[in-house]
Amino acid sequence: MLTLRGISLLLAVIVLLAIAWNTDITMVYIFFVIAFVMFVLSYIHMRLNIPFIEVRRFAQDTAFEDEMLNIKMKISNNLSRGASFFEILDYFPAAAPGKEKTSLFMLDIKAKEEKDFNYTIECYKRGVWKIGPVDIVSQDALGFFRMRKPLNVISDIIVYPALFRIFAFPPLASGSVSWMGVETAKISGDSHEFFGIREYQRGDAMSRIHWPSTARHNKLIVKQFERSAIQEATIVLDLKKGNNIGAGKETTLEYAVKIAGSIARFLMDSGAFVQIAGFTKEAIILPLGKG
């Protein structure tokens, strides 16, 4: 609660009191009274200046690494009197080291007034994060006392890894199936490519009947079309703690995540279904999907 300046003033009050008590010098008593009154009035001012405000935060719930995140704060004064000279601290754990806290200084807010503030901050590291809490910091006019009041204003955000563009991808090893996209399977389906004919089966659409073949065989014959078989790909990540080398963002795991995400996006854009599997003590699997 006491700042360094406040501690200095308190020590001065104690020293002046001791000197005045032992020397009985009037001037020392006067200095003691002045210092003591300053100390008491500063404390009273700090207590009266504690704002009773409501803070709301508006931010998107997803972002990518290295993007600038725009955050809007709405400040509401719920008291019947104004407040002045207080600070609002917002905490964003995904920011760069040493830049997690953003300070908004309020010179004045009137009774029942609302104010809007915007600030931007860099999404430094991927992950699932919680923005907040918010701290309201109030102090007296002379800076002798300082009080911090936490507000449980929490916002959830997912910061996705920064991906890079892949222009080409090598084919899989010899003997494997086609490496990406859609490959043709020689079975009946709903493609527009004609495959052949077969005997009519219950449930076949009448529009598929091949009338020349029907007349020739004296029974209902329908047209067959190729069906597309969607290819699937699995990307495996090693999540074991002992295999992660480096510090901060510059680790083998962080690079692996960026590479895996970039490959997954490339394959999905090419028409493949992709799943990602991570292995540590337990297997973590993101099921097959296209986005």
Can you describe this structure?
The chain has four helices and 18 strands. It is of the alpha+beta class and 291 residues long. The chain has a four-stranded antiparallel sheet with strand order 5-4-8-9, with helices on one face. Helix 1 (4-23) runs antiparallel to helix 2. The longest helix is centred in the N-terminal third of the chain and has 23 residues, at 26-48. The two termini are 51 Å apart. Mean pLDDT is 82; it is low at 172-192.
Brief account:
By secondary structure, this protein is of the alpha+beta class. The protein folds into four domains: 4-48; 53-160, Immunoglobulin-like; 182-230, no CATH class; 232-289. The chain is built from four helices and 18 strands.
Number of strands: 18
Chain oligomer state? single chain
Instruction: Report Rg.
Output: 35 Å
Q: CATH fold name of the largest domain, please?
A: Immunoglobulin-like
Keywords:
4 domains, three-stranded antiparallel beta sheet, 4 helices, Immunoglobulin-like, 291 residues, alpha+beta
